[in-house]
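Quick entry between incubations.
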Amino acid sequence: MGHSTDEKHEKKEMDTRSLSSSRHPSLNMAYIHKVGVPPKQNLFKEFKATVKETFFSDDPLRPFKDQSGSRKFILGIQAIFPIFEWGRRYNLTKFRGDLIAGLTIASLCIPQDIGYAKLANLAPQYGLYSSFVPPLIYAFMGSSRDIAIGPVAVVSLLLGTLLQNEIDPTTNPTEYRRLAFTATFFAGITQATLGFFRLGFLIDFLSHAAIVGFMGGAAITIALQQLKGFLGIRKFTKKADIISVMHSVWGSVNHGWNWQTIVIGATFLSFLLFAKHIVKHIEKGINPSSVNEIYFHGEYLGKGFRIGMVAGMVALTEAIAIGRTFASMKDYQLDGNKEMVALGAMNIVGSMTSCYVATGSFSRSAVNYMAGCQTAVSNIVMSCVVILTLEFITPLFKYTPNAILSAIIISAVINLIDFQAAILIWKIDKFDFVACLGAFFGVIFLSVEIGLLIAVSISFAKILLQVTRPRTAILGKIPGTTVYRNLQQYPDATKVPGVLIVRIDSAIYFSNSNYVKERILRWLTDEEEQKKVDYQPRIQILIVEMSPVTDIDTSGIHALEELYRSLQKRDLQLILANPGPVVIDKLHASNFTNVIGEDKIFLTVADAVSSCSPKLVEEA
Amino acid sequence: MGHSTDEKHEKKEMDTRSLSSSRHPSLNMAYIHKVGVPPKQNLFKEFKATVKETFFSDDPLRPFKDQSGSRKFILGIQAIFPIFEWGRRYNLTKFRGDLIAGLTIASLCIPQDIGYAKLANLAPQYGLYSSFVPPLIYAFMGSSRDIAIGPVAVVSLLLGTLLQNEIDPTTNPTEYRRLAFTATFFAGITQATLGFFRLGFLIDFLSHAAIVGFMGGAAITIALQQLKGFLGIRKFTKKADIISVMHSVWGSVNHGWNWQTIVIGATFLSFLLFAKHIVKHIEKGINPSSVNEIYFHGEYLGKGFRIGMVAGMVALTEAIAIGRTFASMKDYQLDGNKEMVALGAMNIVGSMTSCYVATGSFSRSAVNYMAGCQTAVSNIVMSCVVILTLEFITPLFKYTPNAILSAIIISAVINLIDFQAAILIWKIDKFDFVACLGAFFGVIFLSVEIGLLIAVSISFAKILLQVTRPRTAILGKIPGTTVYRNLQQYPDATKVPGVLIVRIDSAIYFSNSNYVKERILRWLTDEEEQKKVDYQPRIQILIVEMSPVTDIDTSGIHALEELYRSLQKRDLQLILANPGPVVIDKLHASNFTNVIGEDKIFLTVADAVSSCSPKLVEEA
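Done. Structure below.
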């Protein structure tokens, strides 16, 4: 072993020697490594690669490669219905885990469903219906092993708020319900379409920070609305914002709160918050068909579509976030687009069987995971318990006091307020924290939709800011190495006299090309003023380190040309270091390499510096 | 000199020797360079720096630094009215250049103004009015020396189309004109506001490619509309798209085109296209006041505001593009935000003196530059010629045949079709070319607004694509160096056995964090499959080169954590190379550095490789 290390050492010595000589172009030109120009790509190939990376980045057809026809068919069926794949390896041990997890989440979901249906202004049985059909469909089509499907608080609240703006649920309950099914149908269509056309990446635009803020705000709004049942107030506002709710609460103080209700609720709430055990609660019988209730024409079609799209996107965000979290905990891959098709299909079928929008629930999925679920069979178990409940014991639920229901909902949603995450966001990224706060206050002070809008807008603003104002840095040589790094990060790095080395930290596109050019000129002006003060030699060479510049467009090349012209007027040399494959290709295509000279482009900053420093020495 | 080179050489040798020994951590730990953690910044300072970089990246207050009170006042006046700065250095030589240039652009602008006013569905004198007041104001407030101010074809067409949708100019000419002044007023307000709040970077979102396509489409649309005057057709469509226009043209073939008109037009057009000389054409007297004609309330206020905003933004884009082009040709700096305030002020004053939206004209600015203009005085000269024309010779213009006017307009707009630029765009960036084509066909087949919308949407889509699907690359060692580069660009670079080196080429944000994580895992899977086929040792170490990763947010850190967990399950080591200042700061804040271990973060890929390769050797 010692021998091999020695050998290695010797080889390294040689490497570094040849490297050091390569840094003396005047002595030995041949050793300078040229910047590679990638082989010319066929236009169609290039286009195909881009499309593939954008829409098929997960390479979904990989398992189909080199397979026979019948095998391909089986794989296709398994791709749409993953149950046929993992089902073959299913056994009793796994079923034991799934049975216990399924029973646990069923006991949790039944009272939650009843409460959430109320948030959506629907009769309680619709919550239960939505915990029967969708989980079954998901079990066949979904690929997450830990997600628990059913109605969730945030989507119920959002759906309730949006539908209420169109139809009053107390005066027109039938039309309201029909619009709810229409919205559910289109929520499913939206989800399935996004998945089918592989546009799943669109939901990535809702940032984690925005979701934390939105969820926290929605949880507080929901909890506040439960004050109605909790305090036994009769006259209560229909609006969801905190000001209207507090107005209702304090307005009814004079009429006296119902103290018995408060005691029951408070006792039960504290019981739930500490023990995490759940008791249970309408109309008997399983889901009736609702195919004929969906509006396929008329004015409500458009409204249902719009509401469904928003609710469907929010539901997707929640389900995908949950799915990804648990998949990474158990280390399996989740195909986002396939998940979306599964969720979409389950909501489309749901809308035809009296269900409203279902998705993955944060609280129940966590319980499912903790109770030891193995596969989506736990959803089937839960579904069976819900059928039995619907068929036999629903009439008993009518005796459940409202205060208890409110307590159940409060205890469920309170977990959505994730202080730890908010603190971490504050620590890591202040801008993210603003997005988080914006969504939070938008939801509690204005409305659920506006909170969502604020969250999305701030997320977009952040992306735009990132692309318009990329970072630039001045580099210096780290003592004892040939490595050039950001002077801010490595204060002991030293500048090379007469040379300014600037690194651009982003692709150069139309949105930032002018900024980049002007920023570099400003670095130069700053530096020149500094040199004047310090009586140091003036700057003769500007080296632009292009390693992080992954792409450049026509505006970017214009900006470089303008930079070059400005430098020429000031009698300064422009040198580029390490342009990437795409960039060097485009610099060639636009003839810019000939304008500045091929010999002004180097593989590394170190090469560039060593090639020009002899000249500086000569002139000194 | 020889001596100093020798000395340098010796120093280098030492450097490289210490470098090479630094690559043997087992021999000499002390030489490994740690990744620097930048000094902790005050939150307020950090915030101030971000705001400064976003809104004041040009450092507008630099000249005010360390000046006395009265000097600051003078500098302030000069900042708002640059004429007081350059005016003091003005002399007779400069005036000669400006006089000739001013007379030249005046002779060009008078017939153009009359034609453009027709595009905006206004009486011809309003075109001339707009070439009198706005250039004067600009001369005092603007900082470009070469731009020629006045009505331009594209903005006139856009304004005409948008206003026509609201009010019919033939039946309600007075109301139409009033709305035009209202729109002009708000165009000015929009421009001045963007400049004042330093939001000038917003116009950078209209990419160069989109502008080329939009301008080309608008030019063809304008030229087609001139067929009415050129062919002497009486009944002509009011719509601007190519299908309606061609329908009008061929529909009137049967009724016979007016051959005399065609001969005059064709002769004149060919004369103009070859000789570039212009003849001249209405109501006598200078601009009447129009303060009372602007709608400050009522339904037209909102419409005027909307139209003015769109027209103002397009006018800005054109003026800034022209200003920047000529500024870079003569190498002076242009303050985009100051320009916007100047353009805004000139349109606000213009709207009160019977002018419609004026901006910088491509064709006239080029002529101005070529004729040897020195300062904005050429605009004052032009303005004076226009006053004289308005006062004395406008009545003569009524004898100008329509065919000649059409020919003048066609010859002016045909220069807006920039084939060369389109070809260059095709060569450099195919996606840009799609944006260019989209804008072009949108304008000629649909309408000016839709073309503009398509251009903006495609530009945005490009930005979004850039942030959702950043590039990643596999690195290899370039033989004879310690430099690691993209294997695609440098096919002779070699992989290190047992190690996979991946570079992420973008900041890691919520919009791409999942993609980045999954892409890295896919690289790993691909590589492992390859190794299996080739019977090579399995991969034990994944080095992520973070140099281009300028920033990371909470979602990005989550993704890294998930990546780390996945790698742990597969018994692989995660090593980070060269995280930047912001990234290392956030990795510390989120405790991720402790999770993976401080000793797993290296300054360079070479350091990382050399620190782990002894281990690989041991195990081999």
